[in-house]
Amino acid sequence: MTALYLYAITDRPEAPVPADPGLESVSLLNISHQDIAAVVSPLSTTEVLPAEDNLWRHEAVVEALMVGRAVLPVRFGTVLASEAAAQAVLVTHYADFTASLDRVRGRVELGLRVLWDDDRPPTTNAAQRSSSSSGRSYLLARLEEERQVRVWRQQAEALAAELHTPLAQLAAESIQQTLITPRLLLTAAYLVERDQVTAFQREVGGLSAAYPALRLLCTGPWPPYSFVTATVPTADGEERPYART
Fold first, then answer.
1. Which DSSP letter does residue 169 get?
2. Structural domain boundaries enclosing 216
3. Do residues 155 and 178 lie in contact, with contact meaning Cβ atoms separated by under 8 Å?
4. Would residue 103 count as lying in a domain?
5. What whole-number distance in Å separates Cα of residue 29 and Cα of residue 27?
6. For residue 142, what is the domain's CATH number?
7. How far is the first Cα of the chain from the last one, in angstroms, to the nearest whole number?
8. 137 and 200: one domain?
9. pLDDT (0 to 100) of residue 5
10. How far is CA 173 from the centre of its chain?
């Protein structure tokens, strides 16, 4: 049996697959079930190395599939044992797939990263001074450090909300995290209607002008990696979630 590399689940199984080949320069195939399809290509191995060329080929296929159909992108490296296994995945997960396709149909993902100067409050080095200070002084210094950090985080979260709120209003769904690192004020993903992409990008430009001390980086449109949560059984028996590589 020939292993199959899985790129995505799509609607419109009657639509032709992209002409450009997939991994190992092999042509793409549609394996369909009712009104959905698994887009695959035959593979000579059951393990795909995350080499740069493989990563880019995977991404290129998924982005090409976005043209004219709804797409549920699959994590890089997802391999199915056979065509029968692909058919079984489509049958078993049909309800989840169709619901997820309805969720993302006509929509794309836009990403945002906001960088700022590391404005963390200066520490009082309480631990270093503990040997020459009383216990009370040490505790007071630690409490002051914690207060300053708490205030800093509250200010950061308020600023992130000022940026995120108007963008979330232009999206069907959004997810966001604040201060993944001290310099990364905000990282977010937005599920946006295709006809709202220009308005979204214009809003990012307006925010960038309004907050010149910040660096706003908007990426996409992408396949909706961040908004698909189903899993696909792989050739090794694992359940692999959809996600960006």
1. T
2. 108-222
3. no
4. no
5. 7
6. 3.30.70.600
7. 27
8. yes
9. 95
10. 13
Question: Could you identify the residue written with the tokens 């090794």?
Answer: 236
pTM listed for this prediction = 0.82
The torsion defined by the Cα of 101, 106, 109 and 110, in degrees rounded to 10, comes to: -170
pLDDT in tens, 115-158: 988 666 555 555 555 545 567 777 777 777 777 778 878 888 99
Spatial separation of the C-alpha atoms in residues 32 and 12, rounded to whole Å:
9
Nearest to 108 by CA among 80, 76, 69: 69
Identify any residues that bridge with 203 across adjacent strands, giving them in sequence order. Answer: none
Q: Name the one residue in this structure whose structure tokens are 């985080």.
A: 153
Q: Is the pLDDT of residue 63 over 70?
A: yes
Q: Does 98 map to a domain?
A: no
State what percent of residues in the chain have pLDDT above 90.
Answer: 67
The number of angstroms, rounded, from the C-alpha of 24 to the middle of its chain's C-alpha atoms is: 26
Instruction: Based on the fold, state whether residues 32 and 132 are members of the same structural domain.
Output: no
pLDDT tens string 4-48:
999 999 999 999 999 999 999 999 999 999 999 999 999 988 889
